[in-house]
Heterokaryon incompatibility domain-containing protein
Amino acid sequence: MTIDDPVDQLGKDTHPQQQQTAFEVVLVDIEKTLKNNVIHCVKRPLEEKDLKFVALSYRWGELHETMIDTKVGYTASITSFSLDDFYDLCYTMTRESNLKHIKYVWVDAICVDQRPAKRKATIYQMSNIYDKATYILAVPDLHLAHLKAVSIKNNDTILGSKEYIKDIYHLIHGNTSQLAALEEKFLDDAHVPNEPPALRLLLLQYTDHFAHSFMTYQKHADHYCPVRALDHICDINRKGHQGHWRAWIKGKSSNSSIGDLHQCNEALCPLESFCQSMPSKDILEELGQFDQSNWKGKIIQRSTSIRQSMEFLADLVKDWSSRVWVISEFNIAKKKNNLMFWFTQFGSFLDRTHFKDDFTFFKFDFNDSDAMLNTPYYENQYDSFITRSYSSNPVYILFHYTMIHQLRQQTFLEMILSSKASRNEDRFYSTLPLSEYADKKSEVSQWDIYNMASVKLKLYDIMTIQDKLTLLFWSSARSAGNYGVLPTFATSVLSLQFQMKDILQALSLDLCNFDLNDPSTMMLYDQPANKNGEATDENDSDTKRYYLRLKPKEYKVTKSNPLDTRRTDFLAICIPALTQLLGIKEASTTHPLDIVSIPAIRRRHQEGSLEREEHFQSHFITLVGSFASNTWIMARESITDYYPQHVKGTRVVVGDDGHDRNTKSTATFFNIY
């Protein structure tokens, strides 16, 4: 969906006075539109009995404006997709088993009257429109024309998969029998010999070029080389046919211009075709025979095209599902389990004369098993790199792993903070109704949300203790960027590699270092930031200094050693300007700044014991500040990289009567700025 209303939030319920007349929804009549490829719209009461229509979910593109007369009283302006792609999609819907009897389709770029009064009325009904739809059809590449225009690589991938669309279609569906039949046909068309009998079996089962490897994870040995493996299999056939091509090459290519530099017994030396030249007529037939024998190259081309296409489609799904309003749309589909998805690039290449009655779009079943998420192959960018480099790289699993994670497994924090939005307050409007904080939606307009820091500050204010802690650990995770702006707990760049499920698991353990049932475990406060006596606007967040008060059960204090230069090096990158601003600058070597590490879980026994909780030892918050003033900031970089001695620090258990009460390195809570 493409709408971005500058004043009113989407999906907001209509006011009583606006409900006096039945809302009429504008729909595209599919059959009449396809008759001459001219958009034909109709109006129907949204509450009309037996009204059936498909609602499209997609992301916007950036094309030149196309103006169309809807024939229902207004002109639509389209910049998100090409009309030709939309017509192809409409035609495909008329052939799809579940949708071919549905007469109408709703797409916001066409079906929303952009005149202010009319626009607002439709925006108020947006959630109802998706809720009333017979099916919600996700089309992650409806902006196909934009994808092709913006990237040569995109265009090459789309065109490269043209010949193998049916293979990709059945691969996404997981239709193994149809894939097997297509692969046998491919081997026949590529003239892969049937003799010896082991040749085809080895190609299908012991290379990464066919469905078995597309769908099954197989870890390879470190020294495995896919090129040599394929060459080795090809040698099985080559040994029986090499003589014929050697004779041919001797008779036809003896005048090679590279003969003095390179002597070769290959049937047709690859260097022969380095410089383009027209072959003589008498060897055209022989070249045709050589092309038939070049099945190794065809295998690689097919495999590469299918793999690149599947990875491209997975990226499109991730991009589409990361839009804040798309998140709202597929969660509406979750209620009736009526989400289907399709790719525009398929419609242009499938032979329209070969559609069968059982042709179906891809259905996403919200009730299916999540077992595929238990595979670690594509958990993050690093694991994905290892999987692609040292295994069969099962792109079938990659695609469905992406679908399941994006549509069913994102946490509230991931949805609201990792999504893409043109207005930050839309993050709340779209995701609050999907969470336990739904009752807060009516307050959003009063929150003065204008950037990501204001989003995080409000989350620290309204969320549960567990969610607040999760956000704090995310903000302090390794590779999270902190660039010297207060408040440090809300201005860091969130790490894309953060494993949220790990911290959630840690916080659920009995050894959790925080009392999740105590509201005072983490609380957000603010105080005037102006120190010059000037009048300030109490509603202006820029004039306030925010801090979190955090109460752990235990923490570690790094031992001070004046001779340890690593401590000095670490403090040097911990935003000196901020420590001075907060009045905690290092006055002398006798009163150095303190470094504290607050872990997610407590130690069960004494220092040095090996316990199960070691798995979570990387989850901790590093603070730099002063026990004297109880003023702290989050460290700019992970202490793991710059000051690993934290593991040797002094363990302090809050409330432990056995701890030395006279030490200055104690606190029952920490004020983090």
Summary: The chain has 27 helices and 17 strands. Residues 226-252 form the longest helix (27 residues). The longest strand covers residues 522-528.
